[in-house]
Amino acid sequence: MAHINLLPWREASLKRKKKEYFTILTAVGLTALALVLIVNFYYQARIDGQNSRNQFLKNEIAQLDIQISEIRTLNEKKDALQKRIDVIEQLQRSRNVGTQVLDEIAKIVPNGIYITQLEKQGNVIYLTGKSESNNHLANMIRAIELSDLFTDATPESITADDDSPKLLSSFKMKVRIKGLIANPSATLAAK
Question: Which residue stretches, if any, does this entry annotate as coiled coil (predicted)?
Answer without folding.
Answer: 47-91
